[in-house]
Amino acid sequence: MRIVFLGPPGAGKGTQAQNISKEKKVPHISSGNLLREAVEIGTDTGIKARYYIEKGLLVPDQIVVDIIKDRILKNDCTNGFILDGFPRTLSQAKVLDEMLKELGNKLDLVFHFAVSKESIVLRLSGRRICGSCGSNYHVTYVPSTRDGFCDKCGGFLNQRADDKPETVLERLRVYREQTEDLIAYYRKNGILKEIQSDARIEVITKNILDTIDTLSEKKYLALE
Ligand code: AP5
């Protein structure tokens, strides 16, 4: 299954990608995580990307496309992947289609996470990330057992630098201007599924899994 999670900042893409990746045993590829790793290590890519991420702007297409291409060509992606946060522009979407075509594949599903602005603000202001293993928490909705520390590895929990209110507003503006057009693009391709993302985490996970399983059954029956 080759799947894209599309939606505004804080819609819950990363949370759901972690859950679905575990259930379906396909890698979760987050363009944001890959870029933040590059920033942390201080690679040339990371140094260039940092400027844009801190301002809440999109990193130039070529930088992101190169990172994603390298990742998708790794062996663990042979049976599929979940792309979280990529593509984010029409040009990235077209490059992805071309790349998959060259590999003899195509996208199976694009989930569009629809969520209210109120939820976005509450979710991003309370999000905490483990500085060691990257696990995702929320002070109210997904609290860690020991305040400020990761349940999985004991690392410190931090707030993401781009979750400051003024940067969140900029990220939302950028989403509306540069990414929202992808909803129509994938709807036209017939692979868009709407996900009501104001619901509880477990409810959303079940809806996504049900949609994936229905599609897998249809594909199986078509082969018989
Ligand atoms: P990226 O890291 O992709 O950020 P984003 O798309 O803005 O999404 P977020 O990670 O903020 O939110 P999410 O939807 O994953 O929500 P989450 O599950 O964490 O990108 C960051 C930056 O990198 C960009 O601004 C850009 O500069 C650059 N970049 C990345 N990709 C790029 C690309 N393709 N092109 C160019 N530039 C790119 O949930 C949020 C919180 O809510 C968590 O605390 C979670 O616990 C909680 N939560 C989740 N679901 C629920 C629920 N159902 N109920 C209650 N709480 C919930």
TrEMBL record:
Annotated region described as NMP, given as residue ranges: 30-59
Pfam families tied to this protein: ADK, ADK_lid
Tagged with keyword Zinc: yes
Residues where AMP binds: S31, R36, L57, L58, V59, G85, F86, P87, R88, Q92, R160, R171
InterPro entries: Adenyl_kin_sub (IPR006259), Adenylat/UMP-CMP_kin (IPR000850), Adenylat_kinase_CS (IPR033690), Adenylate_kinase_lid-dom (IPR007862), P-loop_NTPase (IPR027417)
Keywords: ATP-binding, Cytoplasm, Kinase, Metal-binding, Nucleotide biosynthesis, Nucleotide-binding, Transferase, Zinc
Chain positions covered by the region annotation LID: 126-163
Primary localization: cytoplasm
Transmembrane regions listed in the UniProt entry: none
Cellular component terms per the entry's GO annotation: cytoplasm
Subunit: Monomer.
Function: Catalyzes the reversible transfer of the terminal phosphate group between ATP and AMP. Plays an important role in cellular energy homeostasis and in adenine nucleotide metabolism.
UniProt protein name: Adenylate kinase
Organism: Candidatus Jettenia caeni
